[in-house]
Amino acid sequence: MSTAPSFITCSSLSFGWPDGNPVFDGFQLAVGPGRTGLIGLNGSGKSTCWPSQRRSC
Fold it and tell me: Of 32, 28, 35, whose CA–CA distance to 4 is shortest?
């Protein structure tokens, strides 16, 4: 991970569905100052990923 200052840093995050299916494991995120966006194809998990990061950080 970058050593530059950031406003949000999360590391080693995991998330799975209640039935046990993992969504991600060992997720790393560092968001610095300025505007940041989460982009991806329809159905790629953007809405699943971002709310779980807000709860975990």
Answer: 32
Q: What is the DSSP track for 1-57?
A: ---S--SEEEEEEEEE-TTS-EEEEEEEEEE-SS-------TTSSHHHHHHHHHHH-
Is there a contact between 36 and 10 (Cβ–Cβ < 8 Å)?
A: no
CB-CB contact of 57 with 8 (8 Å): yes
5-36 pLDDT, tens digit each = 657 888 888 888 899 888 888 888 888 888 77
